[in-house]
Automatic annotation (TrEMBL):
<dbReference type="InterPro" id="IPR036188">
    <property type="entry name" value="FAD/NAD-bd_sf"/>
</dbReference>
<dbReference type="GO" id="GO:0004791">
    <property type="term" value="F:thioredoxin-disulfide reductase (NADPH) activity"/>
</dbReference>
<dbReference type="InterPro" id="IPR023753">
    <property type="entry name" value="FAD/NAD-binding_dom"/>
</dbReference>
<keyword id="KW-0285">Flavoprotein</keyword>
<keyword id="KW-0560">Oxidoreductase</keyword>
<protein>
    <submittedName>
        <fullName>NAD(P)/FAD-dependent oxidoreductase</fullName>
    </submittedName>
</protein>
<dbReference type="InterPro" id="IPR050097">
    <property type="entry name" value="Ferredoxin-NADP_redctase_2"/>
</dbReference>
<dbReference type="Pfam" id="PF07992">
    <property type="entry name" value="Pyr_redox_2"/>
</dbReference>
<feature type="domain" description="FAD/NAD(P)-binding">
    <location>
        <begin position="10"/>
        <end position="279"/>
    </location>
</feature>
Length: 327
């Protein structure tokens, strides 16, 4: 990896070195765009043992996947730095300046935000310590690993009932703990009864955890229920501070907040793009990879148009305007 000086003007600076950011870097570098990836080293799926539904790499360890992605991007000439971006400023007419937490600056014509999101977990002791192992939220990412086991659904909102239906496909031993969720309607009660799902009223005080293995759900009154896994519904909040600094506004979603962008990843802020979980709260690894490629292709196309327009402008400018006046 060669680190260039602060005076370098990159075609694209990508903030975030996860599946979306690295996939965009590969697409751009293969089109001979100068690219720098700035990665703070905090992948969302780091606690998980494996990434799933990744065609050809099913179950790959998340950091192993990212290491391979880095190598591929660097192999095409992209620069990858271990760096945290503290501030962002500028615009597409001049350039963007990203200030790193060590005081260094990176300048680029376009910015791709692949910053991911933060999972805001229920404030229940034991949830965080087993998160990504036996405390999970996505049946597609981790459901196979807990199939047939005793699965508790910790309800914190109305989406818990839907979560029950998905996990019930994976195991007949599903219990819904109402915790802080609103009362169930009659139709939901009928569904859960028909599926043999037990519903437990009362607030959950804690999860008993050994290492990263959940052993039981304990209610505020001390009642304990033995379980093997717990599904929760986090609030998904995009890491959108840089987007807001650049003039953007995050949008609310029933599950959290995200960076609004069109299907290619272009935001309403000229020159600023977004890909992965920062703009799609529900994107799994495969979807983030695809979004990164699409954003990379879109940015390359936008830059190609800008380059062509600049070339036309230079051609139309009289030659005398580019020469020094006679002395």
């Amino acid at each position: 990896m060669t680190i260039t000086s602060d005076n370098t003007l990159y075609d694209v600076a990508i903030v975030g070195g996860g599946p979306a950011g690295l996939s965009a870097a590969v697409a751009l570098a293969r089109s001979l765009r100068s690219v720098v990836v700035l990665d703070a080293g905090e992948p969302r799926n780091a606690p998980a043992e494996g990434a799933h539904n990744v065609l050809g790499r099913e179950g790959v360890a998340p950091r192993e996947l990212l290491a391979a992605g880095r190598a591929e991007a660097e192999g095409y000439g992209a620069e990858v730095r271990d760096a945290r971006v503290a501030h962002a400023a500028g615009d597409a007419e001049t350039s963007f300046t990203l200030t790193l937490d060590d005081g260094a600056h990176v300048r680029a014509r376009r910015v791709l935000l692949a910053t991911g999101l933060v999972d805001e977990l229920p404030d229940v002791p034991g949830v965080r310590s087993a998160w990504g192992s036996t405390v999970l939220h996505c049946p597609f990412c981790h459901g196979w690993e807990v199939r047939g086991q005793r699965i508790a659904i910790l309800a914190t909102g109305p989406a818990a009932a839907h979560q029950v239906l998905l996990f019930r496909q994976l195991s007949p031993h599903v219990t819904l703990f109402q915790h802080t969720a609103p009362e169930l309607d009659d139709a939901t009660w009928e569904q859960l009864s028909a599926l043999g799902v037990r519903v437990v009223e009362g607030e959950v005080a804690r999860l008993d955890v050994e290492g990263r293995a959940v052993r039981s759900v304990v209610l505020a009154d001390g009642t304990s229920f033995a379980v093997d896994a717990v599904a929760v519904g986090p609030r998904f909040v995009a890491r959108g501070e840089l987007f807001e600094e650049l003039g953007g506004t995050l949008e609310d979603h029933p599950a959290g907040r995200f960076v609004p962008a069109d299907p290619r990843g272009m935001t309403a802020v000229p020159g600023v793009w977004a890909a992965g979980n920062s703009r799609d709260l529900m994107a799994m690894v495969g979807a983030s990879v695809a979004a990164g490629v699409m954003a990379g292709a879109g940015i390359h196309g936008e830059l190609a148009q800008a380059d062509a327009a600049a070339a036309v402008a230079r051609r139309r400018t009289p030659f005398a305007a580019h020469t020094e006046p006679a002395v």
